[in-house]
Amino acid sequence: MNEAKYIWMDGELVPWADAKIHILTHTLHYGNAVFEGTRAYQTDDGLAIFKLDEHCRRLYNSAKIVAIKPNMDFGTVKQAHIDLLRANNFKNNVYLRPLIYLGYGQMGIYHKNVPVNTSIAAWEWGAYLGAEGLEQGIRACTSSITRNPNRSTFGKAKAAGNYLNSQMAKYEAIENGFDEALMLDENGFIAEGTGECIFIVRNGKLISPPNDNSLESITQATVLELAKDLGIEVERRNITRDEIYISDELFLTGTAAEVTPVREFDHRTIGEGKRGLVTEALQKAYFDVVFGRNEKYKHYLTYI
Ligand SMILES: Cc1ncc(COP(=O)(O)O)c(C=O)c1O
User: Partner of 302 for a Cys bridge, out of 2, 52, 88, 270, CB 3.0 to 4.6 A?
Assistant: First the structure.
């Protein structure tokens, strides 16, 4: 773990080692909390958070979905991201983890009267699926685990409890020798990765599933915007696992995963077994945006 100096907790900057909570913290037992994964990049003009507003909005929307009433207002939490990065004086790219959780004070499943707490941690973090993965592509498989169904969980919330499913799928994939798992929805269509949305390229067309069974991904939206700029034809429709086998390119998008090519899926080589040309162009365009090299999208950056 790349420890930093401070973690923000309910309005205070607390030294990293002192950022502790009680063992009877409600979330620890029943899994109801909401969080974000947000990145800040070292641009030529200093550290800048990418799409801070969008991430904060999704955080508050997630809280609404799972019936958590945040204890801090939106503006305070948004500003706290900036204050935290300033206080920590990071030298490399940073990952931020805001969390709104149910704290200490009452046990039992009914959660309405449990005190709510908010924290933001930030630390220096490189490529989630490895620097080599970004260039060479990773190996993925279809998970035996179905993505959380819409009938029993709230998949539009980036809620802690939802990630038991992702964690089991990721565990299975890694233990079976893969880097990442793609989960199917209840109808057998590809839903999403354990922490990413998916794209394929077929005959020059970029295809990504609708968000019926995936998080409303901020990176996916960025990539779709960039594809338009590059004149790439885009289609939003369901994809089956066998269509991936015969696709020309497959890549994953997420704040952590950024734009990561997949070179092999279920033991089938995808395309030429390396990062494809469309993936490469979109990956380059994405990094240009987050590193502040594209004037058109500088408004997505919050400079520290
Ligand atoms: C399950 C899941 N799907 C998709 C994504 C991609 O979302 P975003 O691009 O907003 O990070 C994530 C990561 O946050 C995720 O955890």
Answer: 52
Q: What pLDDT is recorded for position 131? A: 85
- CB 60 within 8 Å of CB 75: no
Q: Pick one of 3.90.1010.10, 3.90.1210.10, 3.40.1260.20, 3.30.470.10 as the CATH number of 6-124.
A: 3.30.470.10
Q: Cα torsion for 230, 233, 235, 240, to the nearest 10°?
A: -100
What angle, rounded to 10 degrees, do the helices at 74-88 and 52-65 form? Answer: 130
pLDDT score at 295: 97
Tell me, yes or no, if 158 is annotated catalytic. Answer: yes
Mean pLDDT of 30-41: 98
For ligand 1, whether the C-beta of 196 sits within 6 Å is: yes
- C-beta atoms surrounding 103 within 10 Å: 20
Q: Catalytic residue among 69, 158, 284, 296, which?
A: 158
Give residue 89's pLDDT: 96
Residue bearing the CA closest to ligand 1, atom 5: 196
Cα(107) to centroid(ligand 1), Å: 30
Instruction: Quote the ligand 1 centre to 158 CA distance (angstroms).
Output: 8
